Amino acid sequence: MPASPSTANTEPTTRAVNLRVREEIRDLIDQAAKIQGRSRSDFMIDAARRAAEETLLDQTLVRVDRETYEHFLAVLDHPPAGEGYERLMAAPSPWKA
């Protein structure tokens, strides 16, 4: 008797995803994947999965009391500044070095 469809194939189903990227982006991805000893596909799948999880987690509602909320708004109204901040913002991206 043949195996039932639910038990015949225990491998997860995969589907193709086709992307077109600029050459410099592909080169950047290849460089990072090589450092990790992974294929471009494995690297991109993992990066996309992590980005998707972070996006969904960012949708989490956080409740705080009024005092905490007021402090949060005050911090937003006064963004960081100063020599250290300016130096940080002027530093080149490590992947462009």
Q: Could you please describe the fold and organization of this structure?
A:
- By secondary structure, the chain is mainly α.
- It is built from 5 helices and no strands.
- The longest helix is centred in the middle third of the chain and has 18 residues, at 40-57.
- It starts with a helix and ends in a 7-residue tail after the last helix.
- 0% of the residues are buried.
- The chain-level structural class is mainly alpha
Mean pLDDT: 89
Terminal CA distance:
62 Å
Number of β-strand runs: 0
Number of helices: 5
SSE order: HHHHH
Write out key terms for the chains shown.
mainly alpha, flat
Kindly summarize this structure in a few lines:
The protein has 97 residues and is an all-alpha fold.
Task: Please give the structural blueprint.
Blueprint: H1 5-8, H2 23-36, H3 40-57, H4 66-77, H5 83-90
